[in-house]
Design a protein that fits this description.
The chain is of the alpha/beta class. It contains 10 helices and 8 strands. The strands form 2 sheets. The chain has a 4-stranded parallel β-sheet with strand order 2-1-3-4, sandwiched between helices. A 4-stranded parallel β-sheet has the order 6-5-7-8, sandwiched between helices. The protein is globular and about 45 Å long. The two termini are 20 Å apart.
Length: 217
């Protein structure tokens, strides 16, 4: 399957640009084309950056749709998701909604690991009162902070606090954590399920394709 991956940040670092596509290729065998939106080096981290990203996502999706069987918006805030689905004729998966849906398949409290106490809308709306947050968790303000050593250590510490506070599963509420492969590290250290938003989007896409094929039978 040809998947167009929209990175909701701006980078000239090819390794960083293709990090999420590499995850999807290894997990699902997709042929992934990754492109990033312009003029947002720190990605989405507040309402203003979310509103700025949304039309850029829609425009990039329209450019990529002709060469893809499906699109993934690789951001847990799912900027422009509804508008993108209306603008193209192929499936569009948002990483935030996919991560929340995956987390809800597990029982118990869902610890949200992301940018401090900020929780992306699609995740907060889906998880409701099953969501567990740590007050004052972390000092990170933008997703690119996870690329720095201090950001990695902050994420590890916050994840341990979530489990100590009673989290039965952790959902990574920033795809910046996907860029550094944090999910595998946390699974080994904590012994609880950890939902990576990018691979959750891939799983949802596989399920959607399977459902379509079943309907044809």
């Amino acid at each position: 399957m040809r998947v167009g991956l929209i990175r909701v940040m701006t980078t000239s670092d090819r390794r960083l640009l293709h990090a999420h596509g590499k995850l999807l290729q290894e997990a699902f065998g997709f042929t992934v084309t990754s492109r990033c939106i312009p003029d947002q080096p720190s990605g989405v981290y507040d309402q203003a950056s979310l509103e700025s990203a949304a039309p850029k996502v829609v425009q990039l999706a329209q450019e990529m749709a002709g060469e893809a069987d499906a699109l993934i918006i690789s951001c847990t805030s799912d900027p422009g998701l509804a508008a993108t689905r209306a603008a193209v004729d192929i499936p569009v998966i948002g990483a935030g909604a996919a991560a929340a849906a995956a987390a809800l398949t597990f029982g118990g409290r869902i610890g949200v690991l992301g940018l401090g106490a900020h929780v992306p809308g699609p995740i907060a709306e889906s998880l409701g009162d099953r969501m567990l947050l740590i007050d004052g968790e972390g000092r990170l303000e933008t997703p690119d902070a996870f690329l720095m050593p201090a950001g990695i250590f902050d994420a590890l510490a916050a994840a341990h606090m979530l489990v100590d506070a009673g989290a039965d599963v952790i959902v990574q509420a920033s795809t910046g954590l996907s860029s550094i492969g944090m999910a595998d590290v946390l699974r080994r250290r904590l012994g609880v399920p950890v939902i990576d938003a990018v691979t959750a989007a891939g799983s949802m896409l596989v399920s959607a394709v399977f459902a379509r094929e079943v309907q044809k039978v």
